[in-house]
Amino acid sequence: MEILRLVLLFVHVLGFAALFGGLVVQAQAPEKKVNAAMRDGVGTAFLAGLLLVGVLEAGDDPVDHAKIGVKFAIGLVLLVLVMANTRKPSIPQGLWLGLLLLSVANIAVAIFWSPAHTV
């Protein structure tokens, strides 16, 4: 089960890396659009995240449902926004910035929201 968890975590991180990379590569472009890296990355990250939660729930360790809920909400908003704008020739600068900030927020939640450490 641990190997499956690690593989899903790896795929989840790769998905977010593709989404983030697809956003950052357009930073200097005057016209932004949803590219294939963003579309495939957000889908991969979302699906791998769902599967990862299933594996974690099946394990013995407690799952932080609040953290999972926040990550799920951010991921779902990212997924909907990216998929809704996939076929459009361009997206507004504000939407591009919002997608970038939501991606960074989701990564920040994953890294900085950790269980309380006991001394």
Kindly describe this structure.
The chain has 119 residues and is mainly alpha-helical. It has one domain (2-112). Helix content is 72%, strand content 0%. The chain is elongated and about 50 Å long. The protein starts with a helix and ends in a 7-residue tail after the last helix.
Q: Keywords, please?
A:
72% helix; single chain; transmembrane helix; 4 helices; mainly alpha; transmembrane; elongated; 119 residues; membrane; 0% strand
What is the topological layout?
Elements lengths: L1 H23 L11 H23 L6 H20 L8 H20 L7
Helix pairs in contact: 1-2, 1-4, 2-3, 3-4
Number of domains: 1
Query: Could you name the ranges where pLDDT drops below 50 across 5 or more consecutive residues?
Result: none
Kindly provide the radius of gyration, computed on alpha-carbon positions and rounded to a whole number of angstroms: 15 Å
Mean pLDDT: 94
Q: What kind of assembly state do the chains in view correspond to?
A: single chain
Helix/strand/pairing category: mainly alpha
- What is the global morphology? elongated
Largest sheet: none
**Number of discrete helical segments:** 4
Q: Please give the alpha-carbon distance between the first and last residues.
A: 29 Å
Task: Please count the beta strands (DSSP E, at least 2 residues each).
Answer: 0
Give helix % range. over 70%
Order of helices and strands: HHHH
